[in-house]
Write a structure and sequence with these properties.
The protein has helices at about 10-20, 25-35, 50-55, 70-80, 115-125, 145-155, 170-175; strands spanning about 40-45, 65-70, 85, 100-105, 125-135, 180-185, 190-195. It has about 200 residues and is of the alpha/beta class. The chain binds S-adenosylmethionine.
Length: about 200
């Protein structure tokens, strides 16, 4: 399936993200990176062009693996010195590569209506924790006409599937089944970050 232009072009992708997150753009990566100690290993699901690694994790000497369905984004991960895996992730599937932290940012809604099997696989692969950050503010009703148009154009799956998104309440309900060590909104309130404790008996 041919993916949307923003998932093929990292410059366009970065422009769209900057517009949607405004002055809080840098905070979204920082909020996740601050939870990961230097020297850890990280698997980043739906990593996009690996902005998290480029801007926040590489300087912390993280061993980074990015998984994404976009060939160009995986080429970027490799160019940055990370390990890139080109793979279309499905809700129920094979086990994920093991790491200290398994991360997913801005992508859980692609796995609606029920991403819990995927979260279970993330927990099974994580030695120290799972970090999931997901937008909770719907910008398609923003006061800015430009933000509104870009938010609508960028929504939906990478192949143009119908837009689906979480509300904060939906996320809180989903994570109520898990052991959540921390949950907080990033500055600006657009994204909520959940830190899940690892399983007691990892079964990977
Ligand atoms: C909104 S971007 C988020 C990228 C990155 N995590 C970030 O926060 O900057 C979503 C990414 O998920 C990828 N993606 C969406 N569904 C996927 C799937 N089922 N398997 C693999 N990658 C997927 C897209 O190719 C895109 O790079």
């Amino acid at each position: 399936m041919k993916s949307k232009l923003i998932y093929r072009n990292r410059i366009l992708y970065n422009c769209v993200m900057r517009l949607l997150y405004g002055r809080h753009y840098a905070c979204r990566g920082e909020s996740v990176a601050d939870l990961i100690p230097a020297g850890s290993s990280v698997v980043d699901l739906c990593c996009g062009p690996a902005v998290l690694y480029e801007r926040h994790l590489s300087r912390k000497h993280i061993t980074y693996t990015g998984i994404d369905g976009s060939e160009r984004f995986i080429a970027r991960v490799k160019q940055l010195g990370g390990h890139g895996i080109l793979q279309r992730i499905s809700t129920a599937g094979e086990s994920l590569p093991a790491a200290d932290y398994v991360v997913m940012q801005g992508s859980l809604a692609y796995f609606l209506p029920d991403p819990s099997l995927l979260i279970d696989r993330m927990l099974a692969a994580a030695r120290k924790g799972v970090i999931i950050a997901e937008p909770v503010r719907n910008l398609s009703s923003s006061r800015s006409a430009l933000v509104r148009r870009v938010a609508i154009a960028a929504s939906g799956g990478p192949g143009g599937e119908q837009p689906q998104r979480f509300t904060e309440q939906m996320l809180d309900d989903l994570f109520a089944r898990y052991r959540v060590d921390k949950a907080f909104l990033i500055p600006g309130g657009r994204e909520k970050v959940y830190f899940l404790a690892p399983q007691e008996h990892p079964g990977v």
